[in-house]
Design a protein that fits this description.
The chain has two domains: 5-215, Putative sugar-binding, N-terminal domain (Rossmann fold, 3-Layer(aba) Sandwich), CATH 3.40.50.10840; 233-382, 3-Layer(aba) Sandwich (Molybdenum Cofactor Biosythetic Enzyme, Chain A). Helix content is 30%, strand content 23%. The protein contains eleven helices and 18 strands. The chain has helices at 12-23, 60-76, 94-105, 153-158, 183-195, 206-209, 212-215, 242-253, 292-310, 323-332, 374-382, and strands at residues 5-9, 29-32, 48-52, 81-85, 109-113, 121-124, 127-130, 133-134, 165-167, 174-177, 201-204, 233-237, 257-260, 275-279, 317-321, 337-345, 348-355, 358-365. The strands form two sheets. Strands 9-10-5-11-4-1-3-2-16-17-18-15-12-14-13 form a 15-stranded mixed beta sheet, sandwiched between helices. The protein is globular and about 60 Å long. The two termini are 31 Å apart.
């Protein structure tokens, strides 16, 4: 099976929440966890390949090179359509990576639609808004690892590239930023781009990705079914996002057990809890003399080590939040590719992880996604008291 679309994502959770937009409409999807280590990734047997470059926290020049290499490899493999997946809150190397995707694709222009209306993230007048607040003034402007300093999308892109940047559905070369405040806006933009033969390379998050299966003929009558989700939930939280922290606190009030797991804290968490949350909140990187990047890596590795121990019995389904932590956990079990097949709630993805010992189910989400009640809602799904959205 030859791939027809390559999605290039800067982090693993984002690759999954975008890949599932195609899977839920019947397309076959494979998420390649690390293109730098998987030399045969372009041969993945799927209509849609999601290549994860892990470039969100790289210097802009390195991020550019990683994306350029991925798109170039896709072209060499015969893929003709490309989607540069970006963070829905505009974190990361947005300008550098869009420029790399456009240049490597060989197209003249790239339409960028960063809106995700289902998650209350919209673009109006070129300004990106989170819950009605300019993104730089939202919680993402205070992100401890990658704060967003600019809400004007074109200006943010131009800070990392000298490629022409414009707003609106105008002809010409370079990067075009398009507004969208509703799903219908995204659909209309997609049809306009299709009519203009401008779908060779596009960019955005899971929001606009949801319009592409129909436009690119990737739909299928068969839809994947959701299997049973085990007998409990093991939450592995590597995110420090306030949205996720509120979810942990809410779940704790409703009977989840919570264990703090961090580098230098050898105490083992409880193993008999059916509903268990692991997190590294309270870990003080500065007190340990660690830079933020090194602290992020150590936290992810520590959480992954405990995940490997507690997930071996297969009794609980794991929910892993945070791209770095998800990557470390998959490395721990020897997984190099994932197959997303269901979206339990917006941005909350159920996937198969392929390992030498067989398949296992994994739920993932970005740290900035989900209602405060999310973990309790998932518990109700597992107990059969609520159906997924």
């Amino acid at each position: 099976m030859a791939a027809r679309l390559l999605v290039v994502a800067d982090d693993l959770t984002g690759g999954l929440d975008t890949g599932v937009q195609f899977a839920r409409q019947g397309a076959s999807v494979r998420v390649v966890i690390d293109t730098a280590r998987d030399s045969d990734w372009t041969r993945a047997q799927a209509q849609v390949i999601v290549a994860v470059t892990h470039s969100r926290h790289m210097p802009p020049g390195e991020a550019y090179d990683a994306v350029y290499a991925a798109v170039s490899a896709g072209r060499d493999a015969g893929i003709r359509h490309f989607y540069k997946k970006t963070d829905s809150a505009l974190r990361g190397n947005i300008g550098a990576e869009l420029a790399a995707a456009l240049r490597a694709s060989g197209a003249k222009s790239l339409a960028f639609l960063p809106a995700y209306p289902a998650m209350r993230r919209v673009t109006a007048g070129g300004i990106h808004l989170i819950d009605g607040v300019p993104v730089a003034q939202s919680v993402f402007g205070r992100d401890p690892f990658d704060p967003v300093r600019e809400s004007d999308v074109a200006r943010l892109i131009s800070s990392q590239t000298d490629m022409p940047v414009s707003t609106g559905m105008t002809a010409g070369c370079g990067i075009r930023v398009l507004d969208a405040q509703t799903d219908d806006d995204l659909i209309r933009a997609g049809h306009a781009l299709d009519e203009a033969d401008a779908l060779t390379v596009t960019a955005g998050c899971a929001g606009f990705a949801g319009t592409l299966p129909h436009l690119l003929g990737l739909e299928c009558a068969a839809r994947p079914s959701v299997p049973g989700l085990g007998e409990g939930l093991l939450v592995v939280c590597g995110s420090m996002n306030p949205i996720t922290l509120a979810q942990l606190k809410h779940a704790e009030r409703y009977g989840f057990r919570r264990a703090h797991v961090a580098p230098g804290r050898p105490a083992a968490p409880p193993t008999d809890a059916r509903w268990l949350m692991l997190d590294a909140c309270g870990f003080d990187a500065e007190a340990h003399g660690l830079a933020m990047g090194e602290a992020r890596r150590r936290v992810a590795e520590r959480l992954a080590a405990v995940y490997g121990e507690l997930s071996a019995d297969g009794g609980r389904t794991a929910l892993i939040t945070g791209g770095d932590t998800l990557r470390a956990c998959m490395d721990r079990i020897g997984c190099t590719q994932l197959e997303p097949f269901a979206e339990l709630f917006p941005g909350v993805v159920l996937a198969k992880a392929f390992t030498a010992r067989g398949e296992r189910l994994v739920i993932s989400k970005s740290g900035g996604f989900g209602k405060e009640t999310l973990l309790q809602d998932l518990r109700m799904v597992i107990e059969g008291k609520q159906t997924e959205e």
